[in-house]
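Thread amino acids onto this structure.
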């Protein structure tokens, strides 16, 4: 009888473990922990290793792009970003790229090799949590002059839609 009770207890403990593991897995595989509505100030290291803050970009229409040199979709998106930068930067549009590369040196080499004219900073946990901790790349946040997020795109930007949105908010 005692042996049978131990088996039942082991089965119940195992079932509880698997239920808990399933819920943890389900939570961890969501693309975003929480979708932010506005961009709060965050700090990061620029590619020179200097501390910088989002505060310096505040009040401007900014496209915050999470990217990495090892991400094929991120690389494919760069021509779109260059085109948007070229056509809208004179109207106050900014791009701020957040590199998810392993270190700043890799990010700096990538920026140079791709001839990216916009600011690039290196990721950190506080910054990622401020952005809802997305678990996909690339991710872009279009922020208006009031620091409200008006569009979040997971995956490569749709250039036509982005141009339409920029035309509307930059006027």
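Threaded sequence (171 positions):
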């Amino acid at each position: 009888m005692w042996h049978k009770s131990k088996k039942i207890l082991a089965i119940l403990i195992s079932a509880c473990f698997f239920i808990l593991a399933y819920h943890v897995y389900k939570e961890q595989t969501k693309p975003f922990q929480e979708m932010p509505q506005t961009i709060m100030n965050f700090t990061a290291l620029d590619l020179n290793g200097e501390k910088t803050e989002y505060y310096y970009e505040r009040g401007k229409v900014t496209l915050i792009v999470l990217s990495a040199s090892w991400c094929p979709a991120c690389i494919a998106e760069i021509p779109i970003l260059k085109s948007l930068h070229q056509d809208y930067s004179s109207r106050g549009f900014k791009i701020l790229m957040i590199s998810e590369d392993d270190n700043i040196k890799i990010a700096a080499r990538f920026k140079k090799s791709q001839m990216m004219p916009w600011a690039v900073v290196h990721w950190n946990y506080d910054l990622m949590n401020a952005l809802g901790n997305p678990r996909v790349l690339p991710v872009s946040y279009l922020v208006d002059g009031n620091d409200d997020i008006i569009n979040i795109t997971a995956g490569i930007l749709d250039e036509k839609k982005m141009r339409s949105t920029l035309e509307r908010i930059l006027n």
